[in-house]
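User: Sequence for tRNA uridine(34) hydroxylase below. Tokens please.
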Amino acid sequence: MSDPTLPQPHHPYKVMAVYKFADLPDAETLKTPLAQFCCNRGIKGTLILAPEGINGTVSGTPEAIDALADFLFASGPFGTRLTGAEVKYSFADTAPFLRMKVRLKPEIVTLRAPEANPSQQVGTYVEPENWNALIERNDVVLVDTRNDYEVGLGTFQRALDPKTESFVEFKDYVAKNLDPARDRRVAMFCTGGIRCEKASSYLLSQGFEEVFHLKGGILKYLETVPEAESRFAGECFVFDERVSVGHGLELGTATLCRACRHPLTPDDRQHADYHEGISCPHCVGDAAKHAAAAERQHQMDLAKKRGASHLGDDAMTDAAERRQAKKARAEQSRLANKLD
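Assistant: Structure tokens for tRNA uridine(34) hydroxylase:
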């Protein structure tokens, strides 16, 4: 189990990002005890279980997240199967997630390529402090394995952008743009390292000889490498309410369009097609999304006026309390009419 990488105890929320390719044929039976453990401690976020392992990001109080780490790596039903998992910790002032989900899926990162088996073969891990020297070599092809909207916020200098909308498209990109006879050395990176486990295994299965990937991904690089020495330009997209982080894993400047979920830079939010909560330059012209977003924004505004939550577990609690109060008022009215 890793120690906290950013010891900032004054922040109320501790965030754990974890993944491990491991043999979990009992993933289905593990789902309920894992969900109950998290919900009982107020932990929120998403964890994916599959026969090939675990992947996800959650947050909670530091005490709750430390207890979860013990549950996953030592005392819980996983036994020692998750030993050596890639774990990253960070801290936040506000809750990054709204609810807790434990999902069962066929893969913890979807590529739909059975020949890509990280439990059997993966590329060569490169520590963040050695990454700059590798990617500055002229004989290394550098590939960003993330999707187009993630690359748009920030990437490494000289990196190729596959322009994929989903990771399953990465196979087509490799077939059309990379050649094992020509591209003898390929270096890859992603957000936290998990996609590169699959991607590097896939490239090796296709005959590529030397495949490297950034250990711990961009997040570990931004945490480890001094900003003055960084080759990463921009911010790193993350899949929670923070949207993006910068060097030192500090909160970034990006927000999400509530209509299309595309990350927005400060320049995007100055665009004439940007309307908060309704539309952005990336979804202009999509009337259906704009109408749905406008209604969502209206409901959020109403919830704010009531002092209630609109999204997440708190919203469900607020809604249940309102329903109960409405029933109580109806019952009081019925009794009053009966007495009259």
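The first helix runs from residue 27 to 40.
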